[in-house]
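Ticket 4471: requesting a sanity check on a complex prediction with flavin-adenine dinucleotide. Repro inputs:
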Amino acid sequence: MRTTVGIIGGGPAGLLLARLLYRADVDCVVLESRTRDYVEHRQRAGMLEQGTVDTLREAGAADRLHAEGMVHNGIELRFERERHHIDFPALTGGRTVTIYAQTEIVRDLIALQLADGPPLLFEARALAVEGADSARPLVRYLHAGREETLTCDWVVGCDGFHGVAREAIPASVGRTYAHDHPYAWLGILAEVPPSCEELVYARGEHGFALHSMRSPSVSRLYLQVPVGTAPKDWLDERIWDELAARFAIDADWTLERGPITAKSVTPMRSYVHEPMRHGRLLLAGDAAHIVPPTGAKGLNLAVSDVRVSSRALAAWRSTGETQLIDRYSQVCLARVWQATRFSYDMTRMLHAQPDGDAFDQRMQLARLRRITASRHAAAELAANYTGLPLPE
Ligand code: FAD
Ligand code: DHB
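Returned structure tokens:
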């Protein structure tokens, strides 16, 4: 098969890129190793920056998001049994965030793509990218039991952290920066209305907890657990007891409990690969960088990479010029490092450090007290959380 842009990975990055290219009249093919059902049910992100919502609208993929997404004006921080509201519009000149599950974004994009878009192949696993530094890179992939070749002008690796695209960048030209955080998150979905109107980030004595939501009747909650924890290690009753303890405040508030319908454990890692382009291969989203989920930045970064790459590829298609593509890695990495810093700081401020001492705990509380006491400190959190400006 032959195409202009070969996209590896049908997660949010790959599917959105395909949609933006389709609207810019650039043809492409998406190869996704899993089944449609699998990618539509993979529970992950839920918090969208304003710029992410705007980009999905530009892609013509925001009808259901506008109808069902929940616009939030802030978050709540809890520590030392107190609650503190961080008011985003007041601190940022009117910015908000939207809660809409990644599963729903993926479903919306797949439906559009299958209705009128360029080819999207499920159960098509890329094996390798070859000739990244030539004029005709190609992707070798397995589909329906046969090895096939996709010849392209450009390849974009949107194949997540465990994908193959990154491997096509020689070690001699690439460099990785990584930090593994010494804890994990146990995430649950529960059939119970959220116990709060806003997302709650809690620093409990025994660790972090996050209360999020998926709809007025479904809650999404996360709990800091030790590295190596398996979901079956935690019975439902124990999860609810621990969540209730970590969210506890000296006010009249109860965590409502309900049936748990999904449970999974996520490691916490910060990782950046530089550069994000080698020859005719570009990396976007988790294929190039991973952040711990505390700042809710992973999906949002994937969307901003894709926005930049779609514009650069469309400009090349209409003018033959590569100036924007030449700047792709540098432009994306500037934003990636800011999100990496913010996610790292949020993570360190809110989690119990397994090797931490009493001094570290006082530092965490001093940071939280500063945010709740100073409008400047709160505005800095709000600016990062709602999303730093998208590159033009
Ligand atoms: P992925 O979603 O990983 O998609 C990659 C795709 O490539 C997959 O479909 C995979 O099957 C496919 N693939 C892999 N290898 C191959 C191959 N060889 N050939 C073909 N296809 C392949 N981010 C936020 O912004 N906000 C949040 O609130 C948030 N919360 C999170 C909570 C949790 C618990 C977790 C785990 C993550 C969270 N994130 C959040 C991060 C976010 O989910 C990811 O950053 C996002 O999924 C990245 O999208 P992607 O398309 O780059 O990668
Ligand atoms: C969600 C996940 C996050 O990591 C976060 O910081 C906020 C919300 C979520 O899944 O809803």
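Notes from triage: The radius of gyration is 21 Å. Leaving this open until the requester confirms.
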